[in-house]
């Protein structure tokens, strides 16, 4: 039997298979952080995909924490209520659980939509604002320097993560992922390339990971007992020669996250520094997941240029990861799990309305929702 189509547990949440739709920003929310019809059609499409779990895009815990003015938010109850209405619709389509990735962009906030090509918007721009970070170090020379967060402001962010998490549960999400990757705020605190603080949140490894651990603890304390919370990390800054965050640091972080009750580690990389030297290729991030997996007992999700069913199956067979995250591949082909089931000789649950569309290669491989 295919490993990819075996169930997996993330804490108390059981997935029907090990295909995880990784969060992908859509830059399609209103300027107040609310969902639009774009999200309705996209989430519905994912609900019908046959994947085991969908984690929706990075969703800001503060207005200032959005990557762009068109990002989703969960910093107020109106956003919660609109998401709740949308999830109630989507969940009529399939039993697939939905999760949300809670995030704060830090110094990489206040940008235009990426396809507009303008980069960061200055605070004086009508759609821009002053960014914040661990230290007054800009992401690149064109950006306005971020404001270095005070201790009181850090505590406010921790509270806002927890409050957003409670709204996420009320809205109907069944798992929460903390975004501590890709050069956003929590990653900015962890990397010595962006954090030159001298207080309890800077300097030593223990101090630099403090904020991420405190966010996880605050969220866990605010939610129902054993509600599943996972964490996405960047395993490396791809700046080893410059003393950046690296795999050894990520192993230490993963151990600490597991001890605090994280139900999985989602392993990506990069995004912290404009001079990163990423060696992109097939499975280029899988070795990071494989190494972290040796040091924790909770599931590890691998992601990054995993595009073929056989490729995903081999990663699991080699015990390099416990689940497979798909981003661009499933954005391009939302029915990827159907084709994977056919390629690997497995059955997958789909909506009965689609049963008659099966080509010969999918005969007897698709079954309707129970």
Automatic annotation (TrEMBL):
Keywords: Flavoprotein, FMN, NADP, Oxidoreductase. CDD domains: OYE_YqiM_FMN. Its cofactor is FMN. The keyword Oxidoreductase applies. Residues 4-342 form the NADH:flavin oxidoreductase/NADH oxidase N-terminal domain. It comes from the Bacteria. One of its GO terms (molecular function) is NADPH dehydrogenase activity. The keyword Cell membrane does not apply. This is NADH:flavin oxidoreductase/NADH oxidase.
């Amino acid at each position: 039997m295919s490993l990819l189509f075996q169930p997996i547990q993330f804490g108390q949440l059981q997935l029907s298979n090990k295909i995880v739709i990784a969060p992908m920003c859509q830059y399609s929310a209103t300027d107040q952080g609310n969902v639009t019809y774009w999200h309705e059609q996209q989430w519905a499409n994912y609900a019908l995909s046959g994947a085991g779990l969908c984690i929706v895009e990075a969703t800001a815990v503060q207005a200032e924490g959005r990557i762009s003015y068109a990002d989703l938010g969960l910093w107020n109850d109106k956003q919660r209520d609109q998401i709740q209405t949308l999830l109630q619709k989507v969940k009529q389509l399939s039993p697939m659980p939905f999760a949300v990735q809670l995030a704060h962009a830090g110094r990489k906030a206040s940008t235009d939509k990426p396809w507009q090509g303008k980069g960061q918007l200055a605070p004086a721009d009508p759609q821009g604002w002053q960014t914040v970070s661990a230290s007054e170090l800009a992401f690149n020379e064109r950006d306005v320097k971020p404001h270095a967060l005070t201790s009181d402001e850090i505590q406010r962010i921790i509270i806002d993560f927890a409050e957003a998490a409670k709204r996420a549960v009320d809205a109907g999400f069944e798992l929460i992922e903390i975004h501590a990757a890709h050069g956003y705020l929590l990653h900015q605190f962890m990397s010595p390339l962006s954090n030159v603080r001298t207080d309890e949140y800077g300097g030593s490894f223990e101090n630099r990971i403090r904020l991420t651990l405190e966010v996880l603890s605050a969220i866990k304390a605010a939610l129902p007992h054993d509600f599943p919370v996972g964490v996405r990390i960047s395993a490396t800054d791809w700046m080893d020669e410059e003393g950046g965050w690296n795999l050894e640091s990520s192993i230490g972080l993963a151990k600490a996250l597991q001890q605090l009750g994280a139900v999985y580690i989602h392993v990506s990389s990069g995004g912290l520094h404009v001079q990163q030297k990423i060696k992109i290729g097939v499975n280029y991030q899988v070795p990071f997941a494989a190494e972290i997996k040796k040091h924790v007992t909770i599931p590890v999700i691998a992601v990054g240029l995993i595009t073929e069913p056989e490729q995903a199956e081999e990663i699991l067979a080699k015990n390099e990861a416990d689940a497979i995250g798909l981003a661009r591949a499933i954005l391009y082909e939302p029915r990827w799990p159907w084709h994977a089931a056919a390629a690997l000789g497995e059955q997958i649950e789909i909506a009965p309305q689609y049963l008659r569309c099966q080509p010969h290669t999918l005969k007897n491989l698709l079954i309707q929702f129970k």
